[in-house]
Design brief:
Length: about 210
């Protein structure tokens, strides 16, 4: 997959990723346990036109990181998961002799409720560097199976996004309004490979 995000007229971040996952435990009623890992190549850059000519300033730097994740569907309509991101914590020193920017490790756990056949509610807690935590909440609606609409809130952040599925490809876009960073955006493209497994995501039962 590929993901591009940035702060308008300031910085950009590109992540190329290769992920593998498996569901070694499957039970009746759609219950399962799945695990996965992602290898990421991250590139951080700045908008040089916004800062002018600075001696020793590099336009971009590249580093490697890894994510690990676990997902469980204990009962119909409910998913519980956890992920550890940015193992390796690559740092990006764009200015020679200056402070470096680190892709910091973070841990997130959460739960999702499928309250309609085409709609999910999400809640998660994220532990950031320095032991600070934040809460995230959101909702997702699938329209016709091909189009997804999402919205979410967190501390100082409001976000929304769309994704479009076509075959094994998914185009993902998002926009965030942050009180400190201002407007940020993200666009990504993912391609799935391997055998498809029906029912992954838990079975839906009418309430």
């Amino acid at each position: 997959g590929w993901q591009h995000s940035g702060v308008v007229d300031a910085s950009t971040e590109d992540i190329w990723s290769l992920a593998v996952a498996a569901a070694p435990v499957r039970r009746s009623l759609g219950a399962f346990l799945a695990c996965g890992a992602t290898l990421k190549v991250a590139r951080v850059g700045i908008d040089a036109s916004s800062v002018g000519t600075v001696p020793g300033l590099a336009a971009s730097k590249t580093g490697l990181a890894t994510d690990l994740g676990l997902l469980v569907a204990p009962i119909p309509n409910v998913l519980v998961g956890a992920t550890l991101r940015n193992i390796g914590e690559p740092s990006f020193d764009l200015l020679e002799g200056g402070a470096s920017t680190r892709l910091s490790r973070e841990f997130e756990w959460g739960a999702s409720l499928r309250w309609r056949r085409d709609c999910w509610l999400h809640f998660s807690r994220v532990r950031h560097p320095g032991s600070s935590t934040s809460t995230r909440a959101g909702a997702e609606l699938r329209l016709g199976g091909a189009l997804g609409v999402r919205a979410g809130v967190a501390r100082d952040v409001v976000a929304g996004g769309l994704d479009l599925c076509f075959g094994r490809w998914t185009l993902d876009t998002a926009y965030r309004a942050h009180t400190a960073l201002g407007a940020t955006y993200r666009v990504g493209l993912r391609a799935a490979f391997g055998s498809e497994h029906a029912g992954l995501g838990g079975q839906y039962d009418e309430f």
